[in-house]
Design goal:
CATH class: Mainly Alpha
Oligomer: single chain
Shape: elongated
Structural class: mainly alpha
Low-confidence stretches: none
Mean pLDDT: 82
Strand order of the largest sheet: 2-1-3
Number of domains: 1
CATH architecture: Up-down Bundle
Number of strands: 3
Strand content: 5-15%
Radius of gyration: 31 Å
Number of helices: 7
Length: 212
């Protein structure tokens, strides 16, 4: 009985890293873009509400995410910029930018979760509405938007981790059109001795048209 051992095709082995790079790149771009958009959108929504007692009765108060903390929106912008910058750098620079993307995601999560029960923004608005610095907001309620912002941070974090793991396989911006500032040599057409105008142009350039 003869046993035949299957040998993997070289092309299949070579194509595996390419497929992994493409999938990770597409997933990182999707997670990064969606995560930044979600974090920015969440910061503009109402995170908490309450009331404060004034002369005319209870006055309603609301606080948006940007009133509670500006960190998620700021880090979402930083993360989005880092995601774009990943393709502009190589080697160690790409790793550093990827780590910045990871930190942006982690910071967004932390800031959003810390803002879940934060009532300082409502207390500040209560003091302004009542004209009393000691006034505080009562009947506090909180929405789910801080958790949505944390979800956006998680997507940014995932994009950063993918960049750290697979970023070395991703393409970079081509340096084809980059110039190093050094002057390029001019291409001089060979002198045709049968054309007097070529002889005169060569003499103007300080060349010997006879080639002697």
């Amino acid at each position: 009985m003869v046993y035949v051992t299957a040998v993997p095709h070289p092309r299949s082995e070579a194509a595996a890293p390419v497929r992994s790079a493409r999938r990770s790149l597409a997933l990182a771009l999707l997670c990064g873009a969606v995560g930044a958009a979600v974090a920015l959108l969440s910061s503009r929504q109402g995170w908490s509400a309450g009331t404060v007692t004034v002369a005319g009765g209870d006055f309603p108060l609301t606080a948006k995410g940007s009133d509670v903390t500006g960190v998620p929106a700021a880090l979402a912008i930083v993360g989005l910029a880092a995601l774009v910058a990943v393709f502009a750098v190589r080697r160690a620079g790409r790793i550093l930018v990827s780590l910045l993307l990871v930190l942006s995601g982690a910071g967004t999560i932390a800031a959003a979760l810390l803002g879940v029960g934060d009532s300082s923004a409502l207390d500040e608005k209560a003091a302004q509405a009542a004209g009393d610095t000691s006034a505080t907001a009562t009947a506090l309620t909180h929405t789910a938007w801080p958790y949505v912002a944390a979800l956006g941070g998680a997507l940014l974090l995932l994009a950063g981790l993918l960049a750290v793991r697979y970023g070395r396989l991703w393409p970079a911006m081509s340096g084809r059109y980059e110039r190093d500032g050094t002057p390029r040599p001019r291409k001089v057409k060979p002198v045709d001795p049968d054309r007097p105008e070529d002889l005169w142009k060569a003499l103007d350039r300080g060349e010997d048209p006879t080639g002697a």
